[in-house]
Amino acid sequence: MAVTPTAALVQTLNGIQFGFILFMIASGLTVILGILDVLNLAHGELFSLGAYTAIGVFGFIIGIIGPPGDGVVGTAVFILAVLAAVLVTAAILLPVGTLFEAVFLRQIYDRDQVYQLVLTFTLLLILLDVKKFIWGDSSIRTDAVYSAINAIPTSELVGLNYPTYNVFVILVGSAVVAGLFWFFERTKTGRIIRATAIDREMATAIGVSTDRVFTLVFALGAFLAGFAGAMAVPPTSATLEMGTNPLVLSFVVIVIGGLGSLRGAFVGALLVGVIRSWMITLYPPGEIAAPFAIMALILLVKPEGLFGTWGETA
Amino acid sequence: MYWDTPMKRTTTDHDSEGIGRRQLLSAVGGSAVAAALAGCSTLLSDGEAADQGGQSGGEISDEPIQAGLLTFTRGAPGVLGIQAQRGAELAVQRINEAGGIGGQREIELDVVNEGSNPLDSYNQFIEEGKEVTFGPISSGTHSQIAPEVEKNEVINVSTDGTVTTLYEETVPDPTYSFRFQNYDIMEVVTMAREAVERIGADNISTVAGVNPGYSFGEDEMRVFTQAIQKLTGAEVVYEGFPELGASDMANHITSINNEEPDVTFSSLWGGDVTTFVRQANANNMFENTTVFGTTLYSAAGDVPGDALAGTDIYSGSRNYYWGLPALGNWQPGRELFDAATQQEGVTVPTAHYMSGYGAVTAWATAVEKAIDLLGTYPSQEQIAQVLEGHGFFTPAGYHNIAEDHQGASNSFAGKMVYDDDLGAARLEDVNTYAATETAPPPGVTGSDWLDSWSA
């Protein structure tokens, strides 16, 4: 199949956009794994919970401000409202994460990892039933965001046929990446978290409350999952099973990047996104296999992943 | 609005007196149950329906018939499965209101989610002593349970599970396994013919496909390729198979935009249709191709109006489209539509609604016929014998279960548009295709039949 330069560019952008969504999910998973040493099987359900919650929050906030108004100001207000809705959704997930860590996980840190897997799988099933109880069996969606943002001209201005919502995801995703690295590299809380990850006993000895750090990290993971869910849902629908595939792909991403490495999650997510995108372009049947093939290759040549584990840098 | 058009009676005063009970019953299959399932029970005078279940001669117990339905009751596939469930429930309700099978035996329908272990759920039905099972929806599930149906010797009338090879390879000589709905080759050939009808064979030189990434989607694309190449000689320029429930179809859409095929074929269904149409519209895909799909209309109640605006989509609707014949001219269709839209989870009844309704109707009318012939309640083997070659009527029209155990009915296809008044999508300018145009003759495999077409 001959691919035109424009199609090649759009496919690459598709891959980057998908990669940023993957990073938003995988970052929470890898931070929890890197610092708490817990593989959170319920992370996909937190992502899904964010998607479901976002539909209500979008409806509420956009119901107040209405559709985008004319002109730059009207457009800017609408985009800010969407961003606010995404942040509110993510914030709603904070107490959920706090509750999970403080009530359930904290009781079993000293036990074998298999207990953590069983517990987080139990939480996965509980969240599945909670979603079913609240939102029912059928898929739900929001119509307020995707079309409205796509109506804002962006790529058309440079002669490209590319949905504005995807541009929005790339820009917001870039901001999330920058924000996370700034948080872990530049803020005191971020450094304390990293210090706890590097040496838990030493951190405790110098007065760091590991309980608080662990709760904060798990809540942060839930926040990122909720954020990702809110960003991912407008072009599609929220369904009960939607947490499964992102969880599996997030595992792939963090294995490629290095278990617990934020930097690795970023590179891994973009790698998976772009390679998957090109695989669909050049050999569509390889779509599902491509991410796993990359993972297998990395495990063979660099078993610790591209960036190793959480350490001196994020 | 056309669906609010006052119902035009299809009978005259003379009819109700002149045709009377006997002729009407004879016309629809010989019993009040058949009349009720055909949507004609209101043509009987008050009280007659409940008195005319069947001619059992009092040799039939009044023990309820335990029946099981395997269908998707949640998640993305629930968009189809719940339709089938509601259709089956309405059929059962009508049977019971008409006095039950043979005028004695009401049906108790147990609905179980097809889910991840459908074979276990099916076996549970058998262990519980179900006298008949209906479903499944999935082709994969059907391939699993059909051999079990033959082992257990308990009739199963599938609602869907429309994989072409089921009665060609998986269970080539079935006795107890039947399928009501038009199967894959029928709906795919319908859409190949529809593409030629709408665009013209001379204008189709390239085709692409975006189909679900499992056996159903691969089967449909393979059959479509074979059919469209015979009809037009077109070249396939792209085939994409997104996994079920995929949230991102942008890559497939970009590939189609790159190739600009004359026709894009799709067997996406349920929530995947909504995702595909929304993202395709956002990427201006409909400026580059016309989409023909077998099951796109399954998302009629889900796909939003803004996503369909400016699209160029033609969808099949298997063996039932609620708007044809026009409801104002078709009392059985009108009554079914009204009853269906009052059920939970049914915005408009789609083909999968008829899958459930028709599967129950096929079995129930066959049992009634067997009772009529035998004067007693028939065995599983006797019901199976009657089902072979059994013709019956539903509000969708006339159906036949052929000797190969495959149902054959007319197929429908039309342009998919959004209807603000309906609050759902509808089909516009609907074409009807006879089974002889879409299905191979008995004893011939789908592939051999397509191969035999002259170019």
TrEMBL record, chain A:
Cellular localisation: Cell membrane
Its membrane topology: Multi-pass membrane protein
Record-level Gene Ontology MF annotations: transmembrane transporter activity
GO BP, one annotated term: amino acid transport
UniProt keyword annotations, A-Z: Amino-acid transport, Cell membrane, Membrane, Transmembrane, Transmembrane helix, Transport
Main location: membrane
Transmembrane segments: 20-39, 46-66, 72-94, 114-134, 165-184, 213-235, 247-275, 282-301
InterPro entries the UniProt entry points to: ABC_transp_permease, BCAA_transport_permease
Cellular compartments per GO CC: plasma membrane
CDD domains linked to this entry: TM_PBP1_LivH_like (cd06582)
Family, per entry: Belongs to the binding-protein-dependent transport system permease family. LivHM subfamily.
Name of the molecule in the record: Branched-chain amino acid ABC transporter permease
